[in-house]
C-alpha cells in the first residue's frame, strides 16, 4: 500500500502523472477483485443469516464474539473499499486537471512560438514594421514602399 501514498512531493508533473496512473490501475485492480465483489454483495445476507443462527445459541459467548468479529471485519472491508473508490475518483479528477494543465502549457508554448515568429517577422523584416536606424525607430506603414519612412 506504500505505492498509494500522497504524490504531493513529486518533482515533475510527468512523474506525478505516471504515478497517479499506476496508482489508479492498482486500486482499480483491487476494487475489481471478484472475491471483494462477492463479499460486498453477499456479506449482508450472510451476516443476517448468522444473526438468526446466533439467536439459537444466545448464551454462547463464542457465538456472540464470532458474530461481532464477522460484522466488524465486513464493516472494515466495506469501509476501506468505499475509501478506495473515493480515492480513485479523486485521482481521476487530478489526472484530468494534469491533462488540462498540460494542454494549457502546450497552447502557451504555441502562442509564445507564434509571437516570437511574429516579432521576428514584423520587427526585423526591413519592409514591414519598425526599421531601426541611428535616429531611432521609425514606423513603416503597410501601404508605403519599403524605402520610405514616415517623418520624425
From TrEMBL:
InterPro entries in the cross-refs: Rho_GEF_signaling-related
Domain of life: Eukaryota
Region called Disordered, residue ranges: 1-21
Protein name: Uncharacterized protein
Native organism: Ranatra chinensis
Amino acid at each position: 500500500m506504500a505505492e498509494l501514498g500522497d504524490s504531493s512531493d513529486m518533482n515533475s508533473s510527468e512523474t506525478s502523472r505516471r504515478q497517479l496512473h499506476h496508482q489508479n490501475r492498482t486500486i482499480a485492480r483491487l476494487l475489481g477483485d471478484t472475491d471483494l465483489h462477492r463479499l460486498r454483495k453477499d456479506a449482508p445476507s450472510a451476516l443476517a443469516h448468522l444473526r438468526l443462527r446466533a439467536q439459537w445459541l444466545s448464551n454462547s459467548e463464542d457465538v456472540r464474539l464470532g458474530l461481532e468479529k464477522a460484522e466488524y471485519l465486513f464493516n472494515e472491508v466495506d469501509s476501506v473499499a468505499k475509501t478506495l473508490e473515493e480515492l480513485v475518483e479523486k485521482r481521476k479528477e487530478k489526472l484530468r486537471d494534469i491533462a488540462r494543465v498540460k494542454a494549457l502549457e502546450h497552447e502557451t508554448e504555441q502562442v509564445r512560438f507564434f509571437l516570437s515568429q511574429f516579432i521576428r517577422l514584423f520587427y526585423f523584416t526591413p519592409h514591414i514594421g519598425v526599421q531601426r536606424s541611428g535616429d531611432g525607430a521609425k514606423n513603416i506603414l503597410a501601404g508605403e514602399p519599403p524605402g520610405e519612412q514616415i517623418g520624425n
